[in-house]
Structures
1.
Amino acid sequence: MLHLTLRQLKVFESVARHLSYSRAADELHLTQPAVSMQIKQLEDNISLPLFEHLGKRIYLTEAGRELYQYSRAISQQLADMEVALDELKGMERGKLNISVVTTANYFAPHLLAKFCQRFRGVTVSLNVSNRETVLKQLTDNLIDLAIMGQPPENLDIDSESFMENPLVVVAPPNHPLCQEHNIPVKRLANETFLVRESGSGTRSAMERFFAAHKININKGMETDTTEAIKQAVQAGMGLGIMSQHTAELELETGRLKILEVQGFPIIRYWHVVNRKNKRLSSVANAFREFLLKEAAKLMDESKN
Amino acid sequence: MLHLTLRQLKVFESVARHLSYSRAADELHLTQPAVSMQIKQLEDNISLPLFEHLGKRIYLTEAGRELYQYSRAISQQLADMEVALDELKGMERGKLNISVVTTANYFAPHLLAKFCQRFRGVTVSLNVSNRETVLKQLTDNLIDLAIMGQPPENLDIDSESFMENPLVVVAPPNHPLCQEHNIPVKRLANETFLVRESGSGTRSAMERFFAAHKININKGMETDTTEAIKQAVQAGMGLGIMSQHTAELELETGRLKILEVQGFPIIRYWHVVNRKNKRLSSVANAFREFLLKEAAKLMDESKN
DNA sequence: GTTTATAATAAGGTTATACTTATAATAAAC
DNA sequence: GTTTATTATAAGTATAACCTTATTATAAAC
């Protein structure tokens, strides 16, 4: 087991470069005996002579040449490491691990793209999962941040809202209610609603809304993706309630219409969430700030 | 300027591997506070936290992950280095820098081949030059060993003879003296001799011999290569005196004949030479021993 | 020979390193 | 709540790391 020190390697490199103990001592602001000692210790450590002494000149031995190569390589690694760590400090580089719930997938990539555009060198790992999985990833500390609708009441979680999440009623373009304005909520009582699985934030918001208005609605097909609901609504199987963000495309192309029901859109909020006490990386922190300050504005702009 | 130690990296690696200070302490046969300290120092050095502490669990930070990569790379370098140095020690590997005078080129490669065959992993750099250049390389410490005929009287040089170097008189096969035996030296007085340049070891040995026998010979063409002399002798331009080793091929194929002159062959010796006080590498030393102990025998064998 | 340049060696001292033990703090598990 | 598992902190210590100055040894240059 050899116990060499980085100091020894550093001194050795200097001597090997100058082929002189005295020059090395000058360079390192040491006395010559100090250099002699370091080299001696290094030679003792590896049990091989590193220099040959012929007259006043010294030469590298075969072992010395070999060691020099490795020593240089290690120095390079250390230098690279220093740069890498400095970059991390300065946020010139870094990795953002983030998970978003499925519905957020309709706008999160857009925001991430903007963020990456601003902070070159930041790499992002985006995971899209259902609410349950996202929460597990949070508690397992697998991710820095999460974006979701309703934050859990769990005390181990910090969350903050950063953008409105308007829930709208969508219908196929040929639906009779599409022509009407200020549709009373009561009118929805006759309609069939396609709903997300229970436990979904959208689903519970919807149920709370109708409960508040004392309305019983028909629940049609129950699916676990918003995508399926959009398809089903287009096919005329019923109405849907969903985050307006998730339906931008279909609304724009006219495949779906928003019904102007009184009390809608239900304004909920997107939240950025992290495990409590988690020390956010500078990148994660920057993204969190970015969301809080600019997400709403950016999403608004992109609509126009 | 960051002053981290290999110890810190080693401890860090262990903690990163176990994701536990206590497990790392066990592995390293330390107490847990000792580990805490090393990590703390490391974190102070790089001014970045390496671990996150969430509850009783710890996790690597981004910086920690980054550092781990570099740390592992450095450890690998060190391990590789250790192996390389061990190989050097054990002569499993190594480089032999050797120069030989031109005339030795007729047998030196053969010996080197045998040597390399025995010590796999040894690489050889063989340089063939005239005596003067070889000596310069020796004093400049560019080579480990040299092979030459007459070693210089220089006190800075260690030399030892390892093999006979018989100088013979060669003639073209149709030369009248070829049929005779025990030719008296006097008979050569009428012959023309093709000679090497003055300063050559062969040339001076020849001159000493004829001077001792008080014979004046005719000197024909003077060249700086033995090869040219062999060609000239075959062409009938005169006789030659040269190391028998350099003419093996021509003798075997009958293109040249050895004249059985009294007092011949003149026995001189091949010497292995190194700069005084030079600490020979294990490979160089092994080759030197190899020459002293086995070269003569091997050359003898190869003749048959 | 003397001078000059270089490295080795010896002696000594300060500091920092790398631990230890003991105890406190924290959070998870029960 | 109590217990258990973990890390942090504090205080103390032996030692080795690292350097200095002073001197010696060596060989090259003059």
2.
Amino acid sequence: MRRSQFFISTLKEAPSDAEIVSHQLMLRAGLIKRLAGGIYTWMPLGLRVLRKVETIIREEMNRSGAVELLMPAVIPAELWQETGRWQAYGPELLRLKDRHQRDFVIGPTHEEVITDVVRREVKSYRQLPLHLYQIQTKFRDEIRPRFGVMRGREFVMKDGYSFHASFADLEREYRVMYDTYGRIFSRLGLGFRAVAADTGAIGGTGSHEFHVLADSGEDALAIGTGSDYACNVELAEALPPTEKRAAAAQALEKVATPQRTRCEDVAELLQLPLTRTVKAIAIMAGGEAAPPSFVLLLLRGDHILNEIKTAKLPGLEAAPFRFATDAEVEEFLGCKPGYIGPVGADRARVRLIADRAVATMSDFVCGANEEGAHLAGVNWGRDLPEPDLVADIRNVVAGDPSPDGKGTLEIRRGIEVGHIFQLRTRYSEKMSCSFLDENGKSRVMEMGCYGIGVTRIVGAAIEQGFDERGIVFPLAIAPFAVAIAPMGYAKNATVKKAADALYEELRQAGIDVLLDDTSERPGVMFADLELIGIPHRIVVGERGLAEGKVEYKGRRDAEAQMVAAEQILAFLRKRLCED
RNA sequence: CGGGGCGUAGCGCAGCCUGGUAGCGCAUCUGAUUUGGGAUCAGAAGGUCGCACGUUCGAAUCGUGUCGCCCCGACCA
């Protein structure tokens, strides 16, 4: 591609509303342009990157035996009503009416459509298994779109759905996809981890997320140092402490703590480590239907509540809980928030759930249920009855023992770029997607689904590859593999001839090359080529040509090197293979 | 959904407090000189100051409303 015939528009300064580096660089490099919140145009340069990502995904999906199709983005509401998701999905689902006032949705995901396709087309076990996928634009009306293409409302997704005659066959395909995803992200040149996303009934194999590791990631991951254990912090188990509860050594004592409502403040006042304090979080369980019950959750002062694990506890799993209002706290504990605690609570009305760590604490500090006061030297059994339930309700922290018993955990941040999931019969049952087995008996199909955030991958790749000059793309997804930067293209006939000849030579060799024939000043040219992240650069100048040489510089190299002009193709081929 | 902030040229910003002909840098266009790391000089084009209503002789500036965008919070006991 000749730059004069292409379209590249770069910026020196990033728009001020771009927060993270990938968003800033994508705007500066002119990969995307914002049209509305979370909605972007992919400019020609960005589209080249996106297409390369798609191509790798497509090649590996096809290689795994999946078959591509393309479903509509606009879906009749009936299908969504059939599975109940018309009601359940909430405001993220963009709904619209056609001219006949019929309801439609813009598809945020396509389980309903694919299941409808398959139930009409597939009747026999002989047609199974079947794995269909598409690469398509989705729309989710996110509460808060941000970070450019990382959390856009409109985005491109690869979504695949597999159909099976048995659970065992679903498990087989799931493993195939697990490996396929690993190959895809490796080929894309990304540093990633597959993490368990569900430890539920299916025994820990039911769902995996694929995360690109980056400090700006929105998800916290618990990663084992002594094994390949990896789990989303949302689900990672905090093991019970190994040490037993120590015997009470201190007397119960009320201490004045005016204006000290947070554990940090109380610990500071009493000159105690935060780990000796207990915080109480008041929630209302049972949802809005029945009269909700009051529950006090107890956590060590330095720990953080894990709402996902908490919501699965006995008595809380039926309906979503919510945090209690100030008035409810006063009603049940007779005290303002900030000084509440478990001691003296009316246990007929207040259910106590203690984190495993709290259950083994002794001589701890907690709110006194009296404004401006806390209790110190508190001990289970002596000062208050044992908790109604001891459970794992906190987020794991770095240094916690790994749940698999090997080593400890570290916390890394990740960007979720892929998710594989065993749907089982969740959709096939509701939509009567069935087949006749070998015995002529009708059975419901087992389903799996497999997603990759195609547009998000571009942002994630930049989060992993950038420096002070701009983007450092992996070769596999760079908009161009090689750039030729002639010095004085318009003025110097020798340079022009050499640059044109080299351009043709590389093109003939099948190398994806950009010739910067704009005659910009060298500094401008170099700055642009570095900003947009082209991995390899060749400078053709009069000085080098006089010695029969051109200059080569890799995007990550500190120094350029001179290469004989007649050897540059072989030299580049070698470089391109190394990447 | 709650809190905060911001809307002035393609991008980054000043002007607003104290109302009086809309500015700066980058980018763009013309010409000249430059040409191996974001050139220099001279000239030019580009904005109904988000939108609406109000106050006023007069509004980018003051008031009310509205729309959009961004950030933070939703872990608070």
